[in-house]
Amino acid sequence: MKIAIPANSPGLEARVEQRFGLSAYLVIVNPQTMSVEAVPSPGTPGQRGAGIQTVVLAISKEVDVVLTGFCSPTAMKYLADNGIDVVTGVNGTVAEAVAQYQKQVHSTPMRNKNNPEITGVSLMDGLKRSGRQIGNLLPILVGVVLLLGLFNTFISKELLLSIFSGNMLPDILWGTGFGSILAGNPINSYVIGGELLRYGVNLFAVTAFITAWVTIGLVQLPAEIAALGKKFALIRNTLSIFLCIAISILTVFTYNAIMRGVQ
Q1: Does the predicted model carry a pTM greater than 0.70?
Q2: Is pLDDT at 170 greater than 70 in this prediction?
Q3: DSSP E strands: which ranges in the chain?
Q4: Which residue, 98, 90, 100, is CA-closest to 1?
Q5: Which residues contact 262 (CB under 8 A, 6 or more apart)?
Q6: Cα–Cα distance between 95 and 110 in angstroms, integer?
Q7: What are the boundaries of each domain within the chain?
């Protein structure tokens, strides 16, 4: 078993960093032998895609568990898809984090099939997990509010309408282009898409923008190449661009047909 922990320095006495992907090191511990492998983190604070690069590193090292203070939903999804458990809300030293994790694993009560009632320990564990999940969502909610304020402050209706002319194909291409070069939580794309609609940008462009945001990752392309191979990553992103165009057209025509039927 391998446990990966983002830390500020190598070794068991290093402090656990609070954000996965922005630490100086990824310390990998074998809890049976307490042997340590400290790998310099490929991501640096402020670097776009830093979290994904660290995800790729964790996957390549075949770790089983990640212990960290906070992990973004996107990074957590990629880790989970590769069979890696993520425990957030962790602090202290690397050695303390590993010891606490082992204690929790060994103290998890087995449920009696003849008496499936929730025990007090499992109830408290569930409450703690719920609290951590709410805490993980707070940065996302704050980010959405800040993003909305920045968008309204720096992006004017005149600027948007000078880019999005109202013609279907050019607007789809602009929407696909902007969505493909931006990165972040999918929730942000819905916020920006709503603001684009409010400013008069047509639904074709907004649909293409949201679809490209969640399917095309030009910013994360280097990490995808490292994890899945150059050929696959390039083919996937190229196909995604064409699919974004097709999906946006099909979605809007379908939506308009349904609305006409309802009326």
Answers
A1: no
A2: yes
A3: 3-7, 25-30, 35-40, 65-67, 85-87
A4: 98
A5: none
A6: 26
A7: 3-107, 142-262
